[in-house]
Amino acid sequence: MGIKSIYRSLLAIVAIASFSFSVFASDEHAEVSHEESSHVEGAHDEEPFNVNEMIMHHISDAHQWHLWGGAHTGVSIYLPIILLDDGLKVFSSSHFYHGEERTAKDHVTGKETHYFAGTGPAEGYALLHEKIYKLTDSGLDVDGDIHFESGHAHNAKPLDFSITRNVVALFTSFVVILLVFFSTAKFYKKNGAVAPKGIAKFMEPLVVFVRDDIAKANIGEKKYKKYVPYLLTIFFFIYISNMIGLIPIIGANLTGNITFTFFLAVCTLLVTVFSGNKNYWKHIFATPGVPIALLPIMIPIEVVGILTKPFALMVRLFANMTAGHIIILALVSIIFINENAAWGALSVPMALFISVLELLVAFLQAYLFAMLSALFIGAAVEEAHH
Amino acid sequence: MDLVTPDMGLLFWTGLVFIILMLLLTKFAWKPILGAVNAREQKITEALELAEKTKEEMKVLQAQNENLLKEARAERDSMIKDAKETASKMVNDAKDTAKEEGAKMIASAKSVINAEKSAAISELKNTVAAFSLEIAEKVVREDLSSDAKQKALAEKLVEDINLN
Q1: A163 to chain B: which residues are within 8 Å by CB?
Q2: Does the pTM exceed 0.90?
Q3: ipTM
Q4: Residue A174 CB burial class (10 angstroms; 0-12, 13-18, ≥19)
Q5: Pairing with B27, which of A39, A217, A347, B138 sits 20 to 30 Å away (CA)?
Q6: pLDDT tens, position by position, A187-197
Q7: Which residues, in sequence order, are bridge partners of residue A293?
Q8: Local structure of residue A150 (DSSP, 8 states)
Q9: Are B37 and A195 in contact, with CB atoms under 8 Å apart?
């Protein structure tokens, strides 16, 4: 009993509380999208609710932080656009969202797509599916418009370093992590090596868990120390980003973004490759016990193996986090597809279950990423044992 | 497709944030936290070792104490025994000396008594002899006061001599 049961009930309360917010927010969002889509389509009021569009809109990156309401009447935080195109151009994304709404016709399928043409400082740029294109592109036949072909815009893109929703989420986790761990470190600086209290008491078991059960267990007693800071950083970066991503309104699908997971996977790949000792490379280029005739087959397989490991890391985190967001949104959408609040009796309990599960997944994926990174590093620094 | 296409801008910001985060955390968080945790773990290990060592030392000390006690007890016993022996010896010696002394005293007393006795006897003898002479003189004087009496005496003496 005691501390464990208190901790469990606290977790349950937090989960339920965060879920109720989540549903509330998701509901709103669904409504928003519904209104938004009907607004954009404009033709008739009873446009059928587009689940796919709503979900994709929710899990993708955006240049604005849409809080509530319709596209023009609602409340949004317009995030800064930073473009590197003939010098640095910084302006608010409202120049797109409150810019000129245009329609581009697909040259192949004939399907029409809406996009925003920028006004003011955004003149000459267009925002299509949250991507920025140049409208003044001399190489294309339609100057001043989007050249749309087979679902792809062919216009040139400026280098876009905008502070998007995911970048804001990134900064939020950055600040949260620094606050949490600086105050933890402050405790030890102030009190020395004593039994932890307050935030240190909460974070220390996690830090020790990463050190002992992730780093030491997979890399080995002798060499683990060098990799502990890296493993701690990726563990908490992923875990806290995952958790922030689950918070409605504040959260964005950062850890479910392929760019984020791609970067972390590349980090693990680089750490692994640069830690590789003689034994590791020998196993790749001259696997012991394999006949020389087989090496031309084995070497490419082993080299691909170096890349598949971090690739799996990248896809695992991306797919798990995105899937979690999609499931919750899809379950909430049941209500809007059927246009009947009574469906909430089915949709809410199921969304609740998945939301609670996501709290576990948030930890599990951070643990898996750090653990597998440690495992790959451990394999790279392992000494020969024959 | 957009979902699985890495975005340059986000990649740049992710990289920047991650690298700064890693540097800051390593320098200002992981080092002090892990340092403190390690120091504490070492402290605990040392304390445990010390406790173990102290326990063993205590055991040794206890054994030593026991030995000391045993020795002390043995010493005490031997001392008591010695003391007893000495005491009994002293008593015996005293007894012997007393006996000897007594015997000596008795002997000397005896000799003194004998000497006194013999002195007394000889004095008595002298006194008796003197008395006898006096009496004899007196008797003789009286008996020789007349011729008849002298004669009778002479006769009597002669008779005595004859009888002897």
Answers
A1: 13
A2: no
A3: 0.82
A4: buried
A5: A217
A6: 988 888 778 88
A7: none
A8: T
A9: no
